[in-house]
Amino acid sequence: MAVLITGGAGYVGIHTAVALLEAGKDVVVVDDFSNSSPDSIKGAEKITGRKITVFKADVADREALEKVFAGNSIDAVVHCAGFKAVGESCAEPVKYYRNNLDTTLTLLETMKKFGVTRAVFSSSATVYGGSDKMPLDETMPTGCTNPYGWTKFMIEQIFRDAAAADKSLSVMLLRYFNPVGAHESGLIGEDPRGIPNNLMPYIALVAAGELPRLNVFGGDYPTKDGTGVRDYIHIMDLAAGHLAAVGYTEKHTGCEAVNLGTGRPYSVLEMVDAYSRASGREIPYVITDRRPGDVAECYADPSKAAKLLNWKADRGLDEMCRDSWKWICGKK
Ligand code: WQD
Q: Hey, what CATH topology would domain 2-180+232-262+299-314 get?
């Protein structure tokens, strides 16, 4: 029996594949490689010494997806495939709704056709919208501030309604906070195309001398040092959360939303200091205007994941920065 990871060559997908393989599961990946590389598959196979069955395809391509299910004994799906750039989603909302919803609807129809009832969905803390009550727990109101976030919100609702109609379904909606870092081997990691939007990959390129300085988006927030505060979680802790969620779907039916965060908030300047220590490099920065749409603080109450999944994030900020830097140095 195998676990299918849609978008499995991407940042979260490939680290989740390593965790599943190391737990003895077989892994099948479907990825169109529009925002990922086959190199990540090779890296995961090298880390684990195990093979991954790979299909290059668009998850929305029903014929291709049915071939994957027909040719492999799938017992659970981890659904990571989807566009994920907040800014791009504001510029091209219809492209985001078409892609992220089509892939999900085709996946659910194909799962039904082949009798697959277990799914873990790559959701996001972005569904909590602009809530200013911290920490965030799963009972708090949801609502989004950009089309990317609304696709995650809508896909959660699609899975919730599907599970309400079909009592055999078991779905976990994993709300990621800020995944960062890389596998400790340095063989796989985050590989954004072009200039990174997110903080750690941007700082990494400043440390590597590929970018001149970091622009700190806002220094006047009501936070410990005036800069934005987020819940950064090591990608391998996030991967372990997916493994626990796959296990949970084996023993339970229904649909549950769960935060995957550390509950330990850090500011932009704390991240700059930590990365400078981990890399031994100066990280020049300048405080600029706030980025539209940003909130001052966003961090998790991770207690539901601890209770339901017996999972918590173990790795700290220094380890996140160390493993990111090792990956960046290995790529040069
Ligand atoms: C973090 C902090 C910025 C870049 C986004 C998505 C979210 C999720 C994670 C997918 C903020 C500051 C950043 C820079 C900066 N993705 N910053 N200079 O915005 O919390 O979340 O990525 O699920 O959905 O919204 O992450 O890394 O972009 O920003 O000062 O060059 O770093 O203002 O305070 P964010 P981020």
A: Rossmann fold (3.40.50)
